[in-house]
Amino acid sequence: MAWLPVPKGTARAWGLMSRSKDRGRAYHFAAHNYVIFAVPILFCDPFLFYGCLRRFHLPEPHWHARMPILAVGGYAVCAMIEETGRARSIFEKDASAPVSEWAPRLRSLFFDRRGNASRPKLLFAVACADALSVMAAWPLVNLLLHQSFTPTWRSFWATVFVAGLFIAALRVQWSYTIPSLRKFVQQVWKVLISVAVVSLAISGVIFLAGETSVSPEDVGGWMELSAVLLCFVRFVAALVARRLTRAGLLVRRTVIVGGGKDAEHLIRELNNDPDNHLCILGIFDDRQDDRSAGDFGGVARLGTFEDLADFCRKSSVDLLIVTVPARAEERLMQILDKLFALQVDVRISALNSKLRINSRAYSFIGQVPMLAAMDKPLGDWDHMLKAVEDRLIGSLLLILASPIMAIVAIAIRLESRGPIFFRQKRYGFNNELIEVLKFRSMYVDQQDATASKLVTRDDPRVTRVGRIIRRTSLDELPQLINVVQGQMSLVGPRPHATGARAERDLYENVVRGYFARHRMKPGVTGWAQINGWRGETDTHEKLVRRVEHDLYYIDHWSVLLDLYIIAMTPISLLTGKNAY
């Protein structure tokens, strides 16, 4: 892909936008906070996008823009692949540019700390591009057929509705997955099927509504142009996915559990498929005999099952493949029991299995059949849906709650000396420690940072204002800031402090599989809270019931369930009696 010429007006506009440091910081702040709702500008104004790149003074020699570029709301990310295949970021080129201080933020939009591309964000960008394509097709068709177009709110919401239908139709066909996006021909068929389904739906709506202002020619042209634009998006997405995968930036970090000849055979089969999007990190096996050597076809043995959980959390493992034969039922169950608390997909290799199982029960990685044992609570698409839900509703609730939060802050400051906020380390997603914000409800010299001693009724450590805000849960409102920052979710298992105890026992020692509740981000409210399990957990039974509700929520998550919990939370606060 050659460099495109940039119109002087567009380049000049970009130069004005980023000339001053203060203005650059302002744009960084806006983009960082609203990027998740933003529109991919690449598909709206490619020249503006290339103007952005020119501000980084990218040299043209020997570089290939071999990877189409995805841009979201003022951020621009372009992984440039050199002839050697090594991936580099455009933001490494000019440290003296005025925007260099927020370049790492730009790079982090689609890439994580290890340089790997974020699958959920890429899929979300593709969905945004799909929606824009369908919405843009309607005015373009009117201009082509009638040489005029008058935008109205009615036509706008109609295009939004139809764009939603297209995304739903593509989603049902599993179009928004990385393996699917890499197969362009398959994607074209899915687009054509979606066009047929949406066309029938629109025709039915027009017929039932008795609409006469829209002609069949207009609808037909709209669908045809939408199909062309969607196929173009798929072509770009397929090229991006393939290049990122082959550059090692869009791989699934994989660990094989179990050694022996089965593991060696599996590795050989996976390596024979260069396009399987897996990066095998190593093997974990408890056996110390000849069946579990130190190396399997270039893949090292990294440790035993006891080391596996810690490795998965620290190395951001995406997939575990178990090679233990299904006939070793007891050993297989022991392994799966240890993997239950991990935020990973678990598959059992059926490569050497002699069991006769219906082929529909298998999924395939390359040509290797797999049996699904466990899945992450949130897939790539679900992850983005929940993130949008958290940022959108969380920001709205934070704005609405601001007056109440200001009143509470003033009351705390007037009653006792000390900070307004209480910051406490709690377990977050994947067992990582996060700093949770609360309004301070205790006297400063009697605060318990580890929650080793539960708050009881008429606890002398609690201030008068503290009793009110704890009973009404107003002390939890600052956690909306954690939600907007991405550390917490609106709905999820409530975060527990590191030293929390039930009957003098640490929580993780009371409930078997306790850490499985950390497979999702902790929430401000949750399924347990609206079902009466709010407040202190001073007994083993209370803790067990709360964890049961948390795991139920994780296993049955949906956007509708989240909305139901959010709607029921105020009612549970009015009727609940366990918080003090």
Helix content: 40-55%
Distance between the termini: 64 Å
Number of domains: 4
Low-confidence stretches: 1-100
Largest sheet: 8 strands, mixed
Provide the structure class.
alpha/beta
* Beta-strand content: 5-15%
Shape: flat
Q: What is the count of DSSP helices, taking H or I runs of 4+ residues? A: 19
Based on DSSP secondary structure assignment, what is the total number of beta strands?
18
Radius of gyration: 27 Å
In round numbers, the mean pLDDT is 75
Question: Can you list the strand order of the major beta sheet?
Answer: 7-8-6-5-9-10-12-11
Describe the structure concisely for a colleague.
The chain is built from 19 helices and 18 strands.
Task: Give a structural overview.
This protein folds into 4 domains: 8-109, no CATH class; 120-246, no CATH class; 252-376, Rossmann fold; 381-575, no CATH class. The protein has an 8-stranded mixed sheet. The protein contains 19 helices and 18 strands. The chain has helices at 8-17, 21-34, 46-54, 103-107, 119-146, 153-172, 178-181, 184-209, 216-246, 260-271, 305-315, 329-339, 380-415, 464-471, 479-485, 507-510, 527-530, 540-555, 559-575; strands at 70-72, 75-77, 79-81, 87-89, 252-257, 278-284, 295-296, 299-303, 319-322, 345-349, 363-365, 368-374, 421-427, 433-439, 489-491, 501-502, 505-506, 523-525. With 580 residues, it is α/β, with parallel strands linked by helices. The longest helix has 36 residues, at 380-415. Helix content is 47%, strand content 13%. Helix 1 (8-17) crosses helix 3, helix 5 crosses helix 13 (380-415) and helix 6 (153-172) packs across helix 8.
